[in-house]
User: Fold these one by one.
Assistant:
Number 1:
Amino acid sequence: MNTEAYSLARSGDIKVRLVTVQLANVKANISMDSAVAAVDGTSAYWKRMSNNRLSMSVASKETFTSKATSWQRYPDMMNTIANELGWAPSPYTALVVFVSSPTLSDGAYGAGWSYNGTSGRVIMPLPASLTRSVLTHEFGHVLGLMHANSLECGSGAQDVSSNANGSFADATCSIREYGDSMDLMGVSQTTQPTISSSLWDFGGFGTGREIRNLGKVSNVGSYTLTAWAGTADNRAVKFTDPVSGEVYYLELRLPVGFDAGTAVNGNRGVKIVQQFGSGSLVLMPDSHRFAGYYSARHAWQAGQTFTTHAGTRVIINWISDSAAGVTIEPTTGVGGTAIAELASATTQLGASTSGVSCGLRNGGCFQLFGNGAVIWSAGTGAQASLYGPVRDAWARTGSENGPLGYPTSALICGIRDKGCFQTYENGEILYSAASGAQPSTAGAIRTAYRKAGAENSALGYPTSGEVCGLRNSGCYQSYQRGEILWSQATGAQLSEAGPIRTAYRKAGAENSALGFPTSGKICGLPQTGCYQGFQAGAIIQTPATGAQLSPNGPIRTAWANSGFEGGPLGYPTGETTCGLVNGGCYQPYQKGAILWSPATGAQLSLNGPIRTAWAGTRYETGPLGYPTSAVICGLSNGGCYQAYQHGEILYSTASGAKPTTTGAIRTLYRNNAAENGLLGYPTSAEVCGLVNSGCYQNYQKGAIIWSPATGAQLSPNGPIRNAWSATRYETGPLAYPTTGVVCGLVKSGCYQNYQGGAIIWSPTTGARLSPNGPIRTLWQQTGFETGRLGYPTGAQTCNTTKTTCTQPFTGGKITWTTTRGAYIN
């Protein structure tokens, strides 16, 4: 894009090679007469703009069939056709092509290219209602002009400065291409409004006398504008802002000449434009985005004031049917007047010690006084900055060049604790005797602080500025009673002084496993509890339990599933502690604990008889290991149980809580319906150390006895167990049972075998021992209780010398002697 202005020496008739082109894939009737008429209309417009120095005429008319297609991008289509025609640029020549398609790519109504401002190419679709104005617009490109644009700002700003990288200082602002519909080089329309004075000046049009150039304005001046579409000399004004060095053009748009159809309503008045490369930029009274393609508010009206971003003011004094009066007041004048007015009303400043100096950021000015200064900018007006801690703090941030920008208020005192504050473009500085003066910069942290009540909140006054560079690009600001922390992921959150904050800082604050806070402190929980959420957990506090960390993980999840503090565990009473056996962890709570291991997951262990019994086994280090379930109730007789890696603990009111450890005894118990079986609930733990390495466990209705030789056997309460008890259990002659009690014998009898014999019971005979030996062997040979002897009715007895023994039966007696052996009496 050419950005060098053109000379008035540019003069001549541009010879047009006019070609109607049939595309390869679409054919149409292309009116050569309409095409010629469009060239003639274009010439008339540019002759008027150039004071008859530039014109266009058709030198040749041709028809042509091309290999180009309608689906090509229009630059590619133009290149194809120009190459086929063998056209090359030369001064004061142009190639104009009308193709057999009603539209061009990207919805373009036409396109033009320039070669040094006197030669170029134009491609147009089929002639239509916009053809004349569009072709005139495209010849503007041939003559070296680009588009007429508008400034569009979400803030509605009238003007805006640029950053060093070329971006707008107001991030809501952008360029709306074609946004100036009061200029031929703007959006397409049937009318052909006069090009703006900035493009006129850039293109070297007219006589050179149409625009009065004031240069860099240093004094207030008033000027008269006449219709820009008219013919008078000096009908527009051009001036350079004394601070920014930017150039502005003032022109009056009235409904005369080429502006007859467009300079109406809100577009009738003073138009303010700037050069934008080889294009232009209109600065409207309201830069908010307008709907559609055409704005009805381009012009400034009488009584309105335009202020450059550097502070120079353009006052629209009056507008008539033929002229307008404007006053230009440069920044130095505007700023100096405002500073003087404020100084006279602010006696605390004392006498001036310097003159007014300008050239600060964004065209600002200042003047020094005995007790401070007055600082002015176009955006903030004049504000006093009194010597003292607030001004010192502002200076430390870089004054108007720092993040706070210019002051927007005076120093205001009388707030809490005899504090003071002063507001700035991007925040404020707060002061109290206890905290000193500290900046509160606009942003998420300041917003959260003000939402909480600022200095009247629980945080009090800031004690530092905003500090960044934390983990994950986080920031914080300290206050008398806490701080506010911010990260991109969590936003700004309060961390108030108190037990929760103390616990958070002790854990490592944002560098801890908890990360940044995700909420402020929330109270009103049961037992006067409070909590604060963090990225990876929470801290929960009550007067009784103190502040405890609850980091995200299986333990916190299990607590959450139980209802948090409203559940059976209540509040945590300590931190999560790891390093237990097999890589386990636990956290204590008011009413129990949660234990976790990689193998079992997180399980609740509620205070009560089951947990007490587990404690008696040495918790996870004991034979049961870690719990694998919660406490489950609803068993028979109101019982409960909790499962563990190596067994379970069962509880009932009658039996208490007793462990049942994984092994043969537990297997047999479960195979016999556990608490629902004939034994009921356990009444003791498993006890070992019996004779021959045996073990047993007692139950409500009996016991289970185990030895390596016999395995686990039931010994239910009843006459058989009583009889065994009378023999001293496993230490007696029968030793360990080798079966359970077996019933269903004749006459409703039952028996149980032992290592040393058996016990046989019937309703009529009771429980009788049958020890291994010759008498039992003979009884067996008769068929036990089904034989002629029936059931034993008494114990086996021997004489003192053990030479004779007998045992009675319902059908007789068996006698044994050393000489005869066993025989039936």
Note: The chain has 13 helices and 52 strands.
Number 2:
Amino acid sequence: MSTLVFEDLAVLRAALDANLIPPAVQAAPVDFARDTAGKLCLSTDEPLPRADRARLREAGVSLRTRAPANPRPLSCWAEVLPLERAGEPTPPLGELLFLSEGDEGFLRVAGELLRLGCEDQRLAFFTDAQGVRRNLCRVADPPYYAVLRALDGGDSLRAFTLARPGGRVWVALGRRHPLAARLDAEPESLVLIGEHGWLHVPDGPWLDLHAVSVVSLPAATRWQRAAPERRLEVELRLTRAPITRPADLWVLRERALEQVEALVRTVPESVVAQLRFATIQDPRGGDPIVVLRARRSAAGPPALDLDAEAYVPAPQIQDLYLPVGAAVDPPFRPSKLRELLLDGPDADSVVWLAPQGEGGRRGRAFTRESLAEDAFAPLGEWVDYLVSANADALVPWVRSAEFDFDPFVSIGIEWAEGSAPPRPAAPEPGPRKRAAHRGPLRPAAVFEAPIDDAPAEDEAAPEGDAPEDGALTVPADAPRSAIEARLAALEAEFCGLDLPLDDPARVPRWAELGELQAALQRTREAGLCWSRALWETPPPDGPTPAAIARRWAEREAQLQGFPSPAQMLGIVDVIPEDLDEQMIRGLAAAVLALAASGEQLEGEQLAALQRFFASHGERLDLRALWLSRSALARMAGDDRLALFQTRDQIMATLREGVGLARNIPAFVRTYGSDGDAGDLGRLADALGSVRDDYLLATRTRRRSTIESTFPDARTDAYVRLLFAWGLARLGRPQAARDELEAARKLLGPRAADPSEPAATPCTTRPSWPSKRGSSRPSTAWPRARPCPPPPTGRSPPASASSRTTSGATSTTASSRSRASSTPTTASTRSIAGSRARPASSPSPASRCSTIPSASPGSSTTCSRSCPAGTPRARPRRCTTCSSTSTPCPSPWPRRASRPRSR
């Protein structure tokens, strides 16, 4: 037997950590004692190799041949080391093991844990060599109150936690052992390391709490079902309520016919067209009673000055009318009120609750009066206009207003063949107006003739053949105000139809709405209307799907500056940085027109189109996405995989939430509110004009000496971010992207991480540069989830690609294709007030200088280092030096020729 003598516990721990003692010897039993000098003496029966003894001597450990006096046997060398304090335990505690003694200890611990809501307890009971009952209780995440009792140490209750997950060594809670991570117990046994020594206990068997507990139940009583002898009587009455909406039903009981006659004589015809009326005989034998009812419209019911009972629809019950400023008491749920007051013989009737008597403490009584729905007729049919009445009295006045023409001598040129004399040229705008344009003047928008594929008058159409297209009437010389008036009237008529939104009878109106929106250059609104027109089967007398698709493609090509819809197929080769929503929508329209005409795409072009819409189709509305992807799938020979992928994409979008601004036209979203979608468009145009004035002022205003000392890049970036936020809230996301990109370029290295996806300030305020100099707009584009409306109560218009202003517009460059096979025709578009989205520009040293503006069609030469004599036919990006001012129309380069900013 060898006896090792260590100076103190630190030397012993260092020897164990350094493995100076072989692991087999450390795991063997050992006798421990302290000598008279306080040194640690450990005797073991395991032999120590000579090399290990030499290493121990070098470490200062002495060896003795005799055993120490009165040694204490230990299970292993680690038992010599005492526990260290580990701090106060904090939840979650994990699995704990409670050790108690006797029946009293078990009952107290298990009962307390059960009272605190810990029912999952596993118990084991043993008797040690001294005959003491030991109780083990394993609990997962016990209540902290029970743990505090174990930490107090007032009784025999102790708590242990696992030394390491999955092990069989438990350490006293709030303590830790220096070698706990290296310890493990024998199979089917546990080691409990406490402050007063180690305990070796069996690992089970474990019993459930309910196996050693008895639950006493109180005496049960059995109730019998019984019906009440009396029923609760509820009397419905009318009580006062706040007035939240104007009246739209009036019951005229006194001088009814006289009041209606006075009404139609004094109010405008548009108000009369909003009203429907019904005349009934008073059941009590009095004068006739007239009931007026307003049609549902976006403008709301008219305000009528009548001596009548005014009613409003009940909340969530449109066919039940309550007096203005009244509500039903007690407040039943709408389904119960409908069951009580509308169901039965009055299911297809208009019901109103007429108040009776004076109001008391509980309100006023009422009677239910109803009238069949088909009893109402338009009020305009009741009015007879007497045109010839009192005509004789007007004869003198008419004669007094007559006059003769002045003498006129004809020289014969009026009937001469040939064109009329040319009109005098318009005066050239002054210097200030030319400066305000800051670019080539674009001619007025040309509105093409309406769709009309019917034969001419001299070519008789075959009998029985209906015209291919509907009556889409946009006069070629119609002013913008007339088109806006026609659009507003058509939208009001559209919303006033008592038809579902997807009814096929609405297809001609959808097509006409798309034509009018395109005439106003509201590309997104036009695209939403065109896609809905193609979504449903048109009526026999309406435009055919082929005509609608062809007209849509022609309009998109005209708005984007392409000579024909077929040229838009080259958009598939445009690099992603130059793509915008209008270009993707135009390509979708071209694909639909091609598919409707029966033409086929094959080979690499068809595959490229499928890949394009798979990558960028999410920027379209759901109907246009499905129509374009399904058309390509049919061209590819019934490509089921592409259809399944499109279906999954649309279903995922629907699960996340349909973006109203992306999928619903603006006039449909704003129907029923107090606002008009056109007001937001005009407000956006006004904001664009303010932005243009600001940009002009920053370039032309002379800065003072103090201003020149400090750079104004941050101030300009702040202003551009404000414009970006405002334009996005007003439904101009593309212009907002341009402003955001300009602000980032002004900030330079202080801008946000370019690797993050760029967002558009649509529904949240812009986040200004932080202390670190980053500009991160916390924004949300109208993608999947719906955009909240502006504070005015109007929904933001969906015309995200609107490019029209009421003043002068300028055409700007857009290099949108990188394939050499794409036609080199300049693609222009009109953007509200200023230039297009800024592209990544080269270094300042290589930037082209600005060239004076020229009207479209004139020839100008790039003033930088472009090839000499290179003409410029239309404003485009310079393909040689990437200048965005007035470039040369050289062949379009590929991606590598476009310098990017780092």
Note: Residues 804 and 832 are 5 Å apart (CA to CA).
Number 3:
Amino acid sequence: MNKKLSVSLMCLSVMAAFPAVAQVSSGIEGLEEIVVTARKRQESLQEVPIAISVMGANDLKNKGVFSTSDLNNSMPGLNVTSSYGESQPNFTLRGIGVGTEYNSNAASPNGIYVDEVYQSMRASHGQQLFDLEQIEVLKGPQGTLYGRNTTGGAINFITVKPTMGDEASGHLTAGIGNYGRNNVMGAMDFTPIPGTLGIRIAGTWVDSDPWLVNRMPRGISKSNPSLTNDQLSGNVAEGVSPGGEESWGLRFSANLVTDSSEFMFKAYSSSSLGGQGTPQNQGVGDTISMARTAVGFYYNTDFFSQAVVDAMPPAFSAKANGIGDSELFTDSNGTAKIDTDGVVFNANFDLTENLSLVSITGYDETYFGLLPFIDCDGTPYAICAIGYESESESFNQDIRLDYKGDNFNMIVGAYFGTDEIITNNRPHFFGFLSDVVKAAGYPDDYFNPGGMGAGLFPDALQADGVVSALSLITPLNGTQNYTQVRDSVAIYGEGTYDFSEALSLTVGMRYTQDDFEYKDALTTMYDGTGAPRLVVVSGYENEATGNKYVIGESPGVLTPLSQKDDSSQVTGRVIVDYKMSEDVMVFASYSKGYRGGTYNGLAFQSAKQVYFVAPETNNVYELGLKSRLLDNRMQLNASLFFNDYTGKQEQLLDATATTFLVNLDAEVTGFEADMIFKATDTLTLNAAISLLDSEFTDGACPDGPLTGPVPQDGQCLNTAAGNVSVAGNPLPYTPEVTANIGFDWEMAQVANGVVMLAADAAFSDQYHFDTFGDYSYSKGDVDASTIAKTDFKKGNPSYWVANARLTYMAEGYSVSAWVKNLTDKFYYGNGINVEGSYDSAFLVRTQPRTFGVEATFEF
């Protein structure tokens, strides 16, 4: 770490000295100014002493950014992954992210905002990106001005405002691509009262076919146990497999401007789903409905024991052994469905020449479902399948005063936010046993959760009325229900004082109070008739039965499990910035961010899994440089930072599939630099690099038993492998090196238009999926095709991905051809280790090469 820190300091010093000799005049027109709203007011990017990456509308188009998942590796230090394909993306910024935590109730340590309104439910983050003015990524804790205080950073999606011109205007884009892709996107502006009232309507629609093939035989049932009757015909249904998309989004905006005020109202609605549906037999005779999905699951037989594959019927085994990189072999696929509706009302009043009042109000509803089931064991057998379903309501109110003086600026405000998430999951285990039970002559209402179920529900199996574990056990089909409510209140203030034209000091502080309630928690298991037989998680407890309730046998009145807790924190930042010249600024800062506590959203095996997980904090120390060089033709920005991360919330998946949330300490040291260079009037180059050194900090395991819900002692946790310390492990989804290069080139004038070529490439170093693995090996090359076989603990291999776009633009229209993942690079975006549970692992591969053409008409 010391060597890397020294190299980073040397790089920053050279960059700071470079401007003194780099002001060379030329006849080339300089770069345009980039305006951001990172400090809740419009400012030049180069005058804001915060590390910020920005992508404007043209950047988004040229890089092929259609959804939030496309932002992966689009800028230094940003990694976007998901356990569910493009659904519920996980943003990791400078090593700070949710890691392996995939519960729908978990808040992201990186705040996501749309037009300044906080998006509480992570499923809503997987949105369609259309009609955007720009995306601003603020790096480092945002513990002062931003609602729902964050430890990693903030990502602001800023939509296009209505124009206030005299005439109506708009544009329409239509395109086609491989994998049956069709897309339409457009926007129109109306001005009922020119200069006073503007209205904008924008929308998008995308439809595409699957790019993954499920080779699971269609007809595995008790009437066809030997896989005969022409059942080895390939896909679950002809041409229907995971990886397709069907989504749409609509947005209505109205902007009213008076002499001393401005009002903005927005209403939006969006939906994301797969496509065609067809029935599939899961396990033996258990038919489910499978709609086309946007989920992108990928399973390879290398992930589960080869002995398991060899033990299958011959035709089955041959089919499993023959799958390729874009194929899977799984007994169930889930439908990813996300619906989001919301409204935003912003008001800005000029109280005096120097003082304004701003109000930001937002309300949204989100539905998230992975239904009816997804395969959670990674094998072709019906061992584990879970249907996820959550609904969320969220309200956010931010009100602030903004003062702008000659040498002093200040913002003070208050924030209130509340969200409620209602979850109804459906965990199913050992479905393959249903035919065994029937063949033995047991009635449909026979119920025995013993045997293998004892490992899943250790606190719920020793009671009168439960059949002996020595008898034939049954499948365990259940429901998990709970509601989580979070209320957050904050007051904040930040001021900047200019000691001179060169030297400024910024001080900000925020007090946050969070209240949490986890309530109405019940996990119930049912027999073959659908009758409830066992409640595993509830408010019922005694010494004899632990945390369970056997229906019809246990005394007392069943009550749901409910808990409450709260936390508070003072956060803020101090920044000193110095302008070395009109075009060069250096800054030093300290900032502290806070992520509120939470509850384990996958607590369906025991009430012991339900407990309050403490908040996390991140103290960051940073040195930065911002500069415009070479007669304003080059923009060069850089940062050197150190994260002191306390209580990072991480999800532990134990060998019995039991999940817990724990708090761990970590450190991240990093260096970032990005450059934009206008080489000629027709050619602009860009490049960026991020260097990260991350690790969970010291913590040797003590002798003897550990205590606590997990149990845990600092960095040491008790797992099926015994007491394990994660000290020294890298943070998940945190590559040591990422880099971006690209260019925008106006190649030639043709007729009345211009031909333009935009291309970019991104590099990601090897990174790890699992916080709790043994990473004591020497780092080496990783082959994506052998990760599951021998290299899962080595993580995702390093890779390059390239994109390109060729456009002919003339007055009133343009035609483009584009390609993403130009070299058809095969790599994974997400991985979960379930070797302890199913002798397998779970990976989500990213999209293969896609390409298409589109035309845009302006009017």
Note: Residues 812 and 858 are 5 Å apart (CA to CA).
